[in-house]
Amino acid sequence: MAVRVQEENFDIGAEISALRGDRTDIGAIVSFTGTVRDLGGTDHVAAMTLEHYPGMTERALAALESDARSRWPLDDCLVLHRCGRLEPGENIVLVVTLSAHRQAAFDAAAFLMDDLKTRAPFWKKEETADGTRWVEARASDDAAAARWSDHQAK
Amino acid sequence: MAVRVQEENFDIGAEISALRGDRTDIGAIVSFTGTVRDLGGTDHVAAMTLEHYPGMTERALAALESDARSRWPLDDCLVLHRCGRLEPGENIVLVVTLSAHRQAAFDAAAFLMDDLKTRAPFWKKEETADGTRWVEARASDDAAAARWSDHQAK
Amino acid sequence: MTLLYFAWVREKVGTGSETLELPDDVKDVAGLIRWLSGRDEGYAAAFAQPELIRVAVDQEHASHDAAVTEAREIAFFPPVTGG
Amino acid sequence: MTLLYFAWVREKVGTGSETLELPDDVKDVAGLIRWLSGRDEGYAAAFAQPELIRVAVDQEHASHDAAVTEAREIAFFPPVTGG
Prior knowledge:
The complex is a heterotetramer, with two copies of chain A and two copies of chain C.
Chain A: E1 3-6, H1 12-20, E2 28-35, E3 45-52, H2 56-71, E4 74-82, E5 84-86, E6 91-99, H3 102-119, E7 122-128, E8 131-134, H4 139-146
Parallel strand pairs in A: 1-4
Antiparallel strand pairs in A: 2-6, 3-5, 3-7, 4-6, 7-8
Helix pairs in contact in A: 2-3, 3-4
Chain C: E1 2-5, H1 7-13, E2 17-19, H2 29-37, H3 41-46, E3 54-57, E4 60-62, E5 73-77
């Protein structure tokens, strides 16, 4: 089990290296990194602040990881989410999956991100020229998470 | 366009950093790393040598990348494949995709790997206790590549 | 019982955490929301559209008909937007 | 014309690259494979099962009925196993 919530930035390469160590049985490593986007123009975002629910967050991420491990043959995985104030271009979230099979590594990483987006208790507040605003949840994220409900892991 | 074939190892974190630079419009970064597996026991692999077709390899990888870019809204991508002699645990291949949309980044990376496995002119020869043997192509790789033929990019 | 509020629910209620004794007739999340809404204008604003409110009972996602009488900690928040 | 051989095709043929003049009656890949098979035992072994042989004409994947008369470079190899 490897889930972490932290204010500090993370180093994608270092996190992957720590997970793989000197293992020779893996074959496939997939990483997903989510970053703060600034669309510019009228949608210019100067920064965002990530609020979360300490205690429940770790439980929710651990549940996600456990769910992913039960669906796919993973050798290891990591879910790491930042909190606090982040500026455009900064890392927000990192998911890494290690498996003997590339499709399992891809699917598990996509599943972890989709499920995290709808289940992990994080909330984004953006700083814009018009003041601050809470980001609204998107129906497309619910749809992305729903597709795994009847997904048969391969 | 970023495709490379090289004998030297690569640094996953450094490659991702070089692609993203200080961009703030990306949102999603997916990496796939393929590594040399040693299943141990009677399937123990001491090393493998990757032969390729210089000239055609670069053309094939560039064609893959161009195909991926036409199917998904990618901000950038990288396809990097090693050649020469590699030992268990070493990196073989790296695909990185950058997009505003996480599903596009995931799908494009999976597509690049599936297509690379069936189109890029590389051949693996394994060193085992019984001598050397050429790795045989797998029907599952053909099937994985075929699913993109009628795939509608989202 | 510990009640927690996050994001704009927290801002409207005016606090992130409080400990309250619930009346005996508050049995489920929906009842708790109705009772909280009557406390003052801040709560009323936070819970004006109950369908926007997500709930966790003892740190697990729960529906509005979940029981609250045995709970130690109940949290109210908007749909999550992490990742 | 430049002919290239890779992996076990190269090992059986005994060389990775050679330049040959093709007879006039060799028009397509299948004909070229038949002609090469008759050159010596190594070629015969390499091309004994033509259905295992993949081909690139001027560095593009091609089928066994592709024309070869205008080609500059033709490569023979097993199904690829990279990645």
